[in-house]
Amino acid sequence: MQSITLQQFNGYLKGQGKSRYNISTLNWQVNLGEHWLLLGGNGAGKSALTATLIGDAKCESGKRLSNIDNLMLVSSDSQKQLLANELEHEKQSLVKDLIFTSQNQHSSLLTQLIELFKFDTLLNRRFRDLSTGETRKLLLINALSSSCDLVVLDEPFDGLDADSCLQLNQILVDLSKIITFVFVLNRLDEIPAFISHYGYVSQGCLIHTLANPSVEQLNDLLKLLHLEHTTLSVPKPDSTQLQSLFAGETLVKLNNAKVSYSDVTVFKNLSWTIKKHQHWQLSGANGSGKTCL
Length: 293
Fold this sequence. Notes:
- It comes from Pseudoalteromonas carrageenovora IAM 12662.
- With 293 residues, the protein is α/β, with parallel strands linked by helices.
- It has helices at 46-53, 76-88, 95-99, 108-116, 132-145, 162-175, 215-229, 242-245; strands at residues 3-14, 20-31, 36-39, 58-66, 71-74, 150-154, 180-184, 197-202, 205-211, 250-261, 264-275.
- It is 28% helix and 30% strand.
- Helix 4 packs antiparallel against helix 5.
């Protein structure tokens, strides 16, 4: 089976200047035919893990094993690298020179993507004159039309209007039958329906992975992501009742408690009292709200 495997991988990615992003003890395997989505808060390290997957990280210990050679990454970092290379070598590349390559010049998909992203009028423009959003679209056109085995898409819907997002999503659905995708997304409403594997990233580590999860398992993962993106605050105590509430044997008391996020109610009308020397066990199905409670 063709795959990319990271075993106890320790290394780093070079940043601007002397900065570096460390990768610690990463274990991850992506097989052809799987479609991954990495979730996590801002700055969790999702982009760093995908860059490591395609071989951009310097390995200090552990292994990266791959028998997949034809792969591409579309991200803000790859945009910056493409522009930096253009400026460093004082190139004057035209957009059409970067789009029409030996791999895709006769592709009907290429024509479809050019129309989708309205690149017909940009083909004779200098690459360095493109906006940030236009540069992202150029990378998407190249990656999706180049017959790659594996494509990493880091926030592919950024900068696209609603109609373009719908059209791109349909193209991705069609291509998912022949291309393995790894996504990094922050908006949950952009998750493609064909995703088979999920990974939760925190502080540069792949904390949880789920393969073909049940609805309950996926909901638990999305709740965890919601907490990462939400600033939680506990209401200040009522100073007039503070002493009476905690007098005697009572340690914790909930009266008609309710917790909800977005349009999902985790629990409501819940009352619970915990007294000294009591030891409780919470039981219930996955997604019933035990961890939240």
